[in-house]
Amino acid sequence: MKKIALTSLSLALLGAAGAAHAQSSVTLYGVIDDSIMYVHNDGGKNLWQMQQGNLSGSRWGMKGTEDLGGGLKAIFQLEGGFDPNSGKAGQGGLLFGRQAFAGLSADQYGTVTLGRQYDPVVDMVQGLTGDNYSEFFTTPGDVDNNDNSSRTNSAVKYVSPVWGGFQFEGMYALGGVAGSTGSGQTWSGAATYGTGPFNIAAGYIRMDNASTPAGRGQTATAAPGWATGATSGGTFDSVINNAYASAKSIGIASVAGQYVTGPFTANIRYSNAQYKPDAYSGFGSTERFNVAAGFLGYNVTPAAQLGLGYTYTHGAGDTSATYNQVSLGADYNLSKRTDVYLMGVYQHANGTQRTSATTTQTAVASAADYGFSSDSSSQEIAALGIRHKF
């Protein structure tokens, strides 16, 4: 579920012999992140289990470039997630469920890629938030896709060069439904600006569901949900927003800023996520989630970092619930490729949340985006783990 910048091993360095511009490379890379996790109040009971992906989703992948000459390169990336505790593939069993794309990159004109990709908001905004440190610091239920629960299929994405610290991205994913061009489509744009220790980024993504109840999986015995044929996966990670899977569309606006000075890293962010219904949805009014969060990181030594975060999430419109969340973390690098960590999160909920088309309940806590639902207003989770990059 996490970040992409990894130390890797180059397997092939030279392309066609005799042509000075024909150099190419293919890189194999990956990460294994696993932990012992304790959940206080998982449905009213305490839970001990193994849990992967607290800092970085476990994955393996390949990426490569081919120099075509004149500053133009062909690029590709294939990346699949997996669970080290069972060996199963992640992202619903997809071979390359995290990313799968190819494209062209030119130093002067930017990069165009085609395939399954992260959206521009994830690329440019997420890295300036506490989620860049750990999943423990992300939005409850990931209602605003801060932890990139959603990836986009059939996407065409453009990334500009950097001009004086400014860069932008745009993406459109074709729904591919004959006679209904917009059914299941996704579009997104984001921009970032950085100068010295300060960086700021903002963006918007719009994800559309299928246009018919049949496209959303509705049958005589099943209510409509998020379509398997939609270009973007849904962001339905817990009881906080599961009841809105039949939304006609999800629109998310996000902005974040980060400042680094000496051993300190501080960032703040805000997002507004809107789950809009239509005649085929299982709820009648737009549900809006407003999220405000802050993070402070401190490098005790070059190898050790501490993190403190607070996230405020408020739902309004269809129902009204508030989630206050405090996160703590410590990470220690044993080497450039291996680190150990201890993370914890506490969440308190109040108000009312929807559980189905016809049912609401007093809000219960579901910390971060792990999906563990309590039977009361509070929940705590802690994890002791290790991460290795290769």
The SS-based structural class is mainly beta
Second rung of CATH, namely the architecture: Beta Barrel
Question: What is the terminal separation in angstroms?
Answer: 17 Å
Shape: globular
- How many domains comprise the coordinates? 1
Order of helices and strands: EEEEEEEHEEEEEEEEEEEE
- Fraction of residues in helix: under 10%
Q: How many DSSP E strands?
A: 19
Strand order of the largest sheet: 2-4-5-6-7-8-9-10-11-12-13-14-15-16-17-19
CATH homologous group name: Porin
Q: Which band does the percent of strand residues land in? A: over 45%
> What's the CATH C level?
Mainly Beta
Quickly count the helices: 1
- Computed over alpha carbons, the radius of gyration is 21 Å
Q: Predict the CATH topology.
A: Porin
Mean residue pLDDT:
92
For the report, how would you describe the main beta sheet? 16 strands, antiparallel, barrel
Low-confidence spans: 1-21
Q: What does this protein structure show overall?
A:
The protein is mostly beta strands. The protein has one domain (about 10-390): Porin (Beta Barrel), CATH 2.40.160. The protein has one helix at about 120-125, and strands at about 10, 25-40, 45-50, 60-70, 70-80, 100-105, 110-115, 150-160, 165-175, 185-195, 200-210, 250-260, 265-275, 285-300, 305-315, 320-335, 340-355, 360, 380-390. The protein has a 16-stranded antiparallel β-barrel with strand order 2-4-5-6-7-8-9-10-11-12-13-14-15-16-17-19. About 45% of the residues are buried. Residues about 1-20 have low confidence and may be disordered.
